[in-house]
TrEMBL record:
It comes from Dactylosporangium matsuzakiense. Keywords: Membrane, Transmembrane, Transmembrane helix. GO terms for molecular function: acyltransferase activity, transferring groups other than amino-acyl groups. Residues 4-333 form the Acyltransferase domain. InterPro entries: Acyl_transf_3_dom (IPR002656), Glucan_succinyl_AcylTrfase (IPR050623). Pfam families: Acyl_transf_3. It comes from the Bacteria. The chain crosses the membrane at residues 12-33, 45-66, 87-105, 117-135, 155-178, 190-208, 220-241, 253-273, 285-309, 315-334. This is Acyltransferase 3 domain-containing protein.
């Protein structure tokens, strides 16, 4: 059974990824292939907070959705075909981007790197780990359980354990630490990525989607996201502009509590809302999500460069760039997939 509301979330997430990287041009964080100096400190702060809020949850949500479909894919294909498919669908785009597209965007032959396709590399590693686990344990294919309620105590336990693991990792890998060679820009969120991928697998096996997405689940998620933001986020920032980044500070503990609570709560709320209100097919959009992910760096960079002549406030240029880049990515994705041989990969 196709879960159209899950496809809707994938479309929303990839649109947010595009918008997030447009914001990187104008935020003053030096977070894209080229940047412009913000026209005011207030605009820089606004775009920075926007990016921090995105980073707290949206890539974790991508890993959750990836994990959700991994068991069925493995069961259907078996270990050999599953790994071959993952190496083709993930490995080939990654290598092309790493050695060709990324240097072109940097306009420097030495600029090899994964760029935003770090996610593709991480997902390939997660898939290989899952296949190794299934093969080693001789875990045979089995149907998912009947739809069962999501135990709320499990939600709170996951948040607590995730926050603790995130805080501990950030003692040695604070936010902003960049892992060289593989170009992993957000290693401080690795506990979230692993946890959400595993949760997707567990949700598939236990029939939590869509059965667990009842109205009260959505309200619980919304309460967690808003409550965590009102309580933990101010406490995290109260210790200073640097304390929340990591290194075992109290501020970093509150920040880990915030982004863990916010991520889990918001994903629960969105899935519940989309299932109730937007459980409909978006065939073209959902079919091109991965293609958009692979090509969006080129589109965002071209759009940003084309707007350099505008003498507008940074937020206005960000809004225009986002309004152009998102539809442009989806419109370009169709012709790209029609290139001979590309459809097998994208």
């Amino acid at each position: 059974m196709r879960l159209h509301f899950v496809d809707t979330l994938r479309v929303l997430l990839i649109a947010l990824v595009v918008v997030h990287h447009v914001a990187g041009i104008y935020s003053g964080l030096d977070a894209w292939y080229f940047t412009e100096t913000p026209t005011s400190d207030g605009e820089s702060l606004l775009l920075t907070v926007f990016m921090l809020v995105n980073q707290a949850w949206f890539m974790g949500a991508f890993f959750l959705l990836a994990g959700l479909f991994t068991p069925a894919s493995y069961d259907r294909k078996g270990p050999g075909r599953f790994l071959r498919d993952r190496l083709l669908r993930l490995g080939v785009p990654f290598l092309v981007f790493y050695f060709v597209i990324n240097p072109l965007l940097w306009r420097d032959v030495h600029g090899i790197g994964s760029g935003p396709l770090w996610f593709v590399l991480a997902l390939l590693i997660f898939d290989c780990c899952y296949a190794a686990f299934r093969f080693a344990t001789r875990n045979r294919p089995r149907p998912a359980r009947a739809e069962t309620p999501l135990p709320y105590r499990h939600v709170l336990t996951v948040i607590a354990l995730l926050a603790a693991a995130t805080w501990a990792l950030r003692i040695v890998i604070p936010i902003g630490f960049w892992i060289p060679v593989i170009d992993f820009p957000t290693a401080a969120y690795l506990p979230q990525y692993v946890t959400f991928f595993v949760l997707g697998i567990v949700a598939a096996r236990r029939g939590w989607l869509p059965g667990a997405l009842r109205a009260r689940t959505g309200w619980l998620g919304l309460a967690l996201a808003l409550g965590g933001t009102l309580v933990f986020f101010p406490l995290a920032l109260a210790g200073g502009l640097e304390a929340w980044l990591g290194r075992g500070t109290l501020g970093s503990l509150f920040y880990a509590l915030w982004d863990s609570t916010f991520a889990v709560g918001l994903v629960l709320a969105l899935l519940t809302l989309l299932r109730a209100r937007f459980d409909r097919e978006h065939r073209y959009l959902s079919a091109h999500v991965f293609t958009v992910y692979v090509i969006h760096a080129v589109v965002v960079t071209v759009v940003g460069l084309s707007l350099t002549w505008l003498d507008w406030p940074s937020v206005a240029k960000f809004a225009l760039g986002a309004a152009v880049a998102v539809p442009a990515c989806f419109l370009l994705a169709g012709p790209v997939r029609r290139i001979p041989g590309v459809r097998r990969v994208l």
